[in-house]
Amino acid sequence: MEPKQFVAALERECRDSAVEGCLEDFESPPGRRPDPTLVQISNWFNSLAPDDREMVARAMREAADATLFGVLCVLDGVRPIEDGAEKSCFKLIAEKDNKQSVICPGTVDLHDLKQSL
Asked: What global pTM score does this model have?
């Protein structure tokens, strides 16, 4: 797997599916006894006009996108998550069919790849 494929997969399988899953839960909370907080959000969300629901969806997509960007910045080492002078260096390797691909660190930062997609 190449870094560009990795970032695209994260966008599709994590960011996009999380937003769509939340929106589905807002429309109709799952389970026999859904979480009371989710029921409260659902009642509010379903009371909105269609244009307002779409605006909520857009805001959620922006928040999810910013979260993914932040995680990629952490993996790239440009957004520290530790106190102190010395920081950890993150390494990410994909392995398939006994072949390894270095995802991070790479020749291009993951957060830059994300911005270019």
From this structure: 0.88
